[in-house]
Amino acid sequence: MRVNADQRRSGCPISCSLDLLGDKWSLLIVRDMVFGRKRYFKEFLASPEGIATNILTDRLKRLEDCGIISKLLDPENKRQIVYTLTEKGIALIPVLVELLCWGATYDSASNFDLDKVRQIQQDTRSRQRFLRELEKRCTSPS
Amino acid sequence: MRVNADQRRSGCPISCSLDLLGDKWSLLIVRDMVFGRKRYFKEFLASPEGIATNILTDRLKRLEDCGIISKLLDPENKRQIVYTLTEKGIALIPVLVELLCWGATYDSASNFDLDKVRQIQQDTRSRQRFLRELEKRCTSPS
Fold first, then answer.
1. Which residues contact B116 (CB under 8 A, 6 or more apart)?
2. Residue B8 — φ and ψ, nearest 5°?
3. Cα(B28)–Cα(B34) distance, rounded to whole angstroms?
4. ipTM metric
5. Which residue of chain A comes nearest to B106, CA vs CA?
6. CA-based R_g, chain B, Å
7. B4 to chain A: which residues are within 8 Å by CB?
């Protein structure tokens, strides 16, 4: 899904973002990489939402094509592929955090600590700290 | 799309949010209501992304079913339906703003002012002011 400028529905940046990310799975893969520090195909496959193999293959390809993730051979096992977030992928953390806060607040099925959400929403320093911690996870060796 | 707890893919709040909003159109309708102050079916249909009538009908129904928008008869023209954001819908503004910042930063097709984006991202007061202005748009009479 290397979407060229002329394949965008409009020049609205929200629409451009949704051209790439507007589906049920792409941002869950990014979530797995940020919150779960997942890096391998099998790890994504094991997430509780139960993504199908063909959908996972497709979404990883799309995320790579649009520069959100990088794919390389695992230095520790050359037969294995490891996925990492690029700068463009790491920059999605604030999007994930806002989806987290909204889901945690308005969805009774959500299992996230609401006090933590309130803190992030009401105290800008807590929010900044949370964002920085998540960024650090993505840039430091696991 | 009244998604019950047992229809959620998992208890992860990000996944719960995407269960409702993970598609290419739902958040664009919310965008139209927030940024464009749109309230009528015909207005959504006229947006530059060119949503099809049947998709718009479906998404409005879903957004209403999950409590993000309300539908009522226009007090000024009883034959017309007017859509407004609920509190749950207005609470999506931070999600939209982060998608806006990300798209504006990383998509060359985006037409949004990058200086404004930098300001929102780097200065928490600017961000808060921007969020408040958008909220006010949704709660004050047009």
1. none
2. -75, 145
3. 10
4. 0.94
5. A88
6. 16
7. 109
Residue A45, phi then psi, degrees to nearest 5? -65, -30
Express each pLDDT in A74-90 by its tens digit: 888 888 999 999 999 99
Contact list in B for residue A112 (CB cut-off 8 A) is 12-13
Where do the domains of chain A lie, and which CATH numbers do they carry? 1-86 (1.10.10.10), 92-142 (no CATH)
What pLDDT digit, counting tens, does each position of B48-61 carry? 999 999 999 999 99
Whether residue A24 and residue B22 make contact (CB cut-off 8 A), yes or no, is yes
For residue A99, the chain B residue with the least C-alpha distance is: B14
Residue type for B104, please? A
**Helical pair B114-122 and B124-139, crossing angle rounded to 10 deg:** 110
- Rounded Cα distance between B44 and B110, Å, is 20
Residue A84 phi/psi, 5-degree rounding, is -135, 155
From B15, B95, B107, residue closest to A28, measured CB to CB = B15
**By 3-state DSSP, what share of chain A in percent is helix, strand and coil, each rounded to 5?**
60, 10, 30
Here the tokens at position B39 are 């309230």
Confidence band, pLDDT 50/70/90 cuts, at residue B139:
confident
